[in-house]
Design a protein that fits this description.
Elements (H helix, E strand, L loop, with lengths): L6 H11 L8 E4 L12 H11 L3 E7 L2 E6 L3
Helix pairs in contact: 1-2
């Protein structure tokens, strides 16, 4: 997922695309920075939203690329 940097665009991307990911599929979000000084907040906020939804679990973070596995449809 390439989240547009305005928060609204990032949420729209997530809301439109996450229902199309099958169980066991991956949601990849780049530019995920836990520290706000390292980068923009929208990708990190989407990463957090996806994890807290109960629909996804974190698989791995590689540099700023977060991989989340879909747990249920």
């Amino acid at each position: 997922m390439t989240a547009g940097f305005p928060e609204k665009a990032a949420n729209e991307d997530y809301n439109v695309w996450h229902p199309h990911i099958i169980k066991g599929g991956l949601l990849a979000i780049h530019d995920v920075f836990p520290n706000p000084e390292d980068g923009g907040r929208p990708p990190f906020n989407i990463y957090t939203k996806a994890k807290e939804s109960g629909l996804f679990k974190e698989v791995k973070i590689i540099n700023s690329l977060a991989l989340l596995e879909k747990l249920k449809k």
